[in-house]
Design goal:
Number of helices: 3
Shape: elongated
Order of helices and strands: HHH
Helix content: 40-55%
Strand content: under 5%
Structural class: mainly alpha
Largest sheet: none
Distance between the termini: 31 Å
Number of strands: 0
């Protein structure tokens, strides 16, 4: 895959929301809190949270790319 395939496709609000949700999911999944007990669900939440954090940082979402969705504002080319 080329760099063209990995262009940012997320708006800043989308990125902020994903970062917030990702941090919340990772926090809930912490073993020291023992909110969910020792379940596989806790690990799944942690992985989903980590994926959301990574997507928010890089600004690229794989499902958006596969579905052809982009919430990022495109720069106008009125020059």
């Amino acid at each position: 895959m080329t760099a063209k395939n990995f262009r940012q496709n997320m708006h800043i609000l989308d990125r902020g929301l994903r970062l917030t949700v990702g941090i919340a999911l990772c926090w809930v999944a912490l073993p020291s809190l023992d909110i969910l007990g020792d379940t596989v669900f806790r690990y799944i939440l942690f992985i989903l949270g980590a994926l959301n954090i990574v997507a928010a940082i890089i600004g690229w979402c794989a499902p958006y790319h596969l579905l052809g969705i982009s919430t990022r504002e495109q720069a106008s080319e009125d020059n």
